[in-house]
Write a structure and sequence with these properties.
Distance between the termini: 17 Å
Largest sheet: 5 strands, parallel
Order of helices and strands: HHHHEEEHEHEHEHEHH
Helix content: 40-55%
CATH superfamily of the largest domain: HUPs
Structural class: alpha/beta
Number of domains: 2
Radius of gyration: 20 Å
CATH architecture of the largest domain: 3-Layer(aba) Sandwich
């Protein structure tokens, strides 16, 4: 039930949906004063949430900064799912968060992580059989990694389950902590909190980074951006998810 309501809540956290709801309300409102106020509210929401500068400032405050790892070897890097999207029930593809996968392979090839644990099932409310972990396992077969060094968790549907099920695998394999936690910089803060609540000792390794604060142009300050508007979807989800996780036992 928690999973169902958490997925439903996401649709109410998208600024574009707020704008559409306000504009639809304006169509049906008869009072001209309230109609103008509703249209003004939609315009303000659009201008605020389509501003790249504002989003980048929020990202700079929220994202976990890149880290330089000490010269030591970790038994395992835990790679949180979400970087694979479903094409159909038999096929997937790497999406915009694929840096999680890339950085994980670099950690293994450099000898920093001895094992990689890829975690991810199907996060859809109506799953059709596609599983992130299973698809990734097939994708990695031609590259001849030692089977004993790659672990796959294929049942989780969200971050909480990512961590819970992965912890069980790590303990069953007798891999000692701390583990490297690999996920997007915007997602790392909530993921660390989930790990803390689960009693899983991890070292953050954020990737999929946002631009540095100094990389601003005229467009970022003044021109509305569809990318910024959609970018808020991730951050609002993280803010609310972090707050909910804070109150969960």
């Amino acid at each position: 039930m928690y999973f169902f309501f958490s997925k439903l809540l996401i649709y109410f956290l998208h600024p574009l949906n707020w704008i559409l709801i306000l504009l639809i309300m304006a169509v049906f409102i008869k009072n001209n004063r309230y109609k103008r106020s509703t249209i003004l509210a939609a315009t303000i929401v659009f201008l605020l949430f389509s501003n790249s500068f504002l989003l980048n400032k929020v990202a700079a405050s929220w994202d976990i900064k890149p880290v330089i790892l000490p010269k030591q070897t970790y038994s395992c890097a835990l790679v949180l799912g979400g970087y694979i999207s479903e094409y159909d029930k038999n096929t997937g593809f790497f999406n915009g968060a694929a840096d999680r996968f890339i950085q994980a392979l670099k950690l293994k090839e450099s000898g920093t992580a001895l094992h990689l644990l890829f975690t991810g099932g199907n996060a859809s409310l109506t799953p059709d059989g596609f599983v992130e972990g299973n698809w990734l396992r097939q994708e990695l077969q031609p590259y001849h990694f030692a089977d004993s060094t790659l672990l796959f968790e294929t049942q989780s549907r969200n971050t909480i389950e990512n961590i819970r099920f992965s912890k069980a695998i790590l303990q069953a394999k007798h891999l000692p902590p701390p583990y490297l936690l690999v996920t997007s910089a915007f997602h790392m803060r909530r993921a660390l909190l989930v790990c803390k609540k689960a009693g899983l000792q991890v070292v953050p390794f954020p990737c999929d980074l946002s631009p540095a604060e100094t990389q601003f142009s005229f467009d970022d300050y003044f021109l509305p951006s569809a990318d910024a508007l959609s970018g808020w979807n991730n951050y609002l989800k993280e803010f609310v998810g972090y707050l909910i996780t804070s109150f969960k036992h």
